[in-house]
Amino acid sequence: MKVALVVDDEPLIRRQVVTTLQDYGFSEIYEASNGSEAIHQAAIHRPILTIMDVTMPVMDGISAAEQMNRDPSGAIVLLTGNTESEIVNRAMEAGVHQYLMKPFKAEQLKISIDLAIHQFVELSNLRDEVVGLKDALETRKLVDRAKGVLMRRGMTEPEAHRKMQKLAMDKRKSIKEVAEAILLMED
User: Fold this and answer.
1) Could you tell me if 49 and 26 are in contact, meaning their C-beta atoms sit under 8 angstroms apart?
2) Are 96 and 76 in contact (CB under 8 A)?
């Protein structure tokens, strides 16, 4: 199920974007008229794509994008008639994936959607990889410290490692959990 969010204070623009998204294959499309509503809708529906105007009442699109990207669920495309470098820089810092100038054609929006979703997926994969690497490094540090404890008790490094592996298998725990337990006993 493809979920999208369209945010613009102009109903005509929202209708144009919704029609394009329907043609693109989105099955659930939610609408909002300002950035504050966008944040609320995004938290509820977790859209894989948000298309949002920059200049709106209550809260602008860039501020909303920044808040939405604290817990990202999908790509964000900004629509604007503004080409000021300050606005573009704010959009980049807020984590916006694409920036499309108004007025736009449906074909241009579809290209921006493709690029934005691709970029979001790539960034999400990188974030996941970083989290995995951090966890692996943390595990490695814990295992090394636990092996040090066992080695101070008279084991060689290979013996300490095998002992931890055996404990992990016997207790059906991860090697990280075994290392943490050994370190707790040492304290």
Assistant:
1) yes
2) yes
What residues form DSSP beta bridges with 6? 31, 51
Over the chain, what is the mean pLDDT? Answer: 89
- Let me know how long the chain is: 187
Q: Residue 187 — very low, low, confident or very high, per pLDDT cuts 50/70/90?
A: low
pLDDT category of residue 86 using cuts at 50, 70 and 90:
confident
* Cα separation, 47 vs 21, whole angstroms: 12
* 113: Cβ contacts below 8 Å, ≥ 6 apart: 21, 24, 49, 51, 75, 77, 98
For the chain, give the percent of residues with pLDDT over 90. Answer: 45
pLDDT of res. 101? 87
pLDDT 10s digits, 145-156: 999 999 999 989
Query: Rounded to the nearest 5 degrees, what angle is found at the Cα of 32, between the Cα atoms of 31 and 34?
Result: 155
Tell me the C-alpha distance between 170 and 35, whole Å: 54
Q: CA 53 from chain center: how many Å?
A: 21
The answer to whether residues 59 and 10 touch, using CB atoms and an 8 Å cutoff, is no
Tokens of 59: 């809260």
Which H or E element spans position 54? none
